[in-house]
Amino acid sequence: MRCFVTGCAGFIGSLLTERLLSAGHSVVGLDNLSTGQERFLSGAREYSSFRWVHADVLDPASLTAGMSGSEFVFHLAANADVRFGFEHPHRDLEQNILATHAVLEAMRKNGIGRIAFSSSGSVYGDTPWVPTPEDARFPIHTSLYGASKAASEGLITAYCAGFGFQSYIFRFVSILGERYTHGHIVDFYRQLRSDASTLRVLGDGRQRKSYLYVQDCIDAMLLAIDRSHERVNIFNLGTNDHCEVNESIRWICEALRVTPRIDYSGGDRGWIGDNPFIFLDTAKISALGWRPTLTIRQGVLRTLEYLRTNPDLLERRR
Amino acid sequence: MRCFVTGCAGFIGSLLTERLLSAGHSVVGLDNLSTGQERFLSGAREYSSFRWVHADVLDPASLTAGMSGSEFVFHLAANADVRFGFEHPHRDLEQNILATHAVLEAMRKNGIGRIAFSSSGSVYGDTPWVPTPEDARFPIHTSLYGASKAASEGLITAYCAGFGFQSYIFRFVSILGERYTHGHIVDFYRQLRSDASTLRVLGDGRQRKSYLYVQDCIDAMLLAIDRSHERVNIFNLGTNDHCEVNESIRWICEALRVTPRIDYSGGDRGWIGDNPFIFLDTAKISALGWRPTLTIRQGVLRTLEYLRTNPDLLERRR
Question: Which residues have a Cβ under 8 Å from the Cβ of A123 and sit 6 or more positions away?
Answer without folding.
Answer: A139, A146, A149, A150, A153, A171, B138
